[in-house]
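2024-03-11 09:14:02 INFO queue: dequeued item KH domain protein, len=234
2024-03-11 09:14:02 INFO validating residues
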Amino acid sequence: MTADSAALLQSHQHHANGTHLTRYASLINRLPRHTAHLLIAPDQEALRHRSSVATGQQYSVEYLSQLLKDKKQLSAFPNVFHHLERLADEEISKVRVALFQFEFTKEEMSLPEPEGDVQITTEKVFVPAKEHPDYNFVGRILGPRGMTAKQLEQETGCKIMVRGRGSMRDKKKEELNRGKPNWEHLSEDLHVLIQCEDTPNRARIKLARAVDEVKKLLVPAVSFLIWLKYLSNI
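2024-03-11 09:14:37 INFO prediction written
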């Protein structure tokens, strides 16, 4: 690809991003004043500013964080702002792929009416750290500033925790705590602990979705596998 064609492609992509955000902002601008205030205050001006500078914008963790806040505010009005919800989801998906080369399942969970008492249910998903010892699975699961794990929690309604050997950033502290009460997990292999607080019939569905999404994160990125192959051929 020539420099001119690459610049043209980049310009087209930036234009598409700007158009998308402008549509998002224009929908918000058409909301009734009192409703818009409830929905997006105090971040309305920030959103309008983002749409005005979207052309040439580079995605950032801060931008994704703001989008997630916007979506959380939208969720306070379920089945009301259909177009806004769709556009927010599309933008979140686009930014997430750009930042992390990863996309969660878009299909919404269909949850039944609660049956039985609310209880805490857990699942463990072990990390293939032995098969890929050089891959940063903890970073992949948590994401920058914990954004990936936080979004997964928001999408599934489950708590996501990295546990086991190698889960702590401070390795000295990990060694000191291994074997102590309340730190038993440090004697286990690296794993993701998924916790759901809900009735059994709903928890099963939430946990199944969370397990599926976590397993996607446990597949090393293609770029990393190519890099390993390159190193092996040196």
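2024-03-11 09:14:37 INFO annotate: The two ends are 27 Å apart (CA to CA).
2024-03-11 09:14:38 INFO item closed
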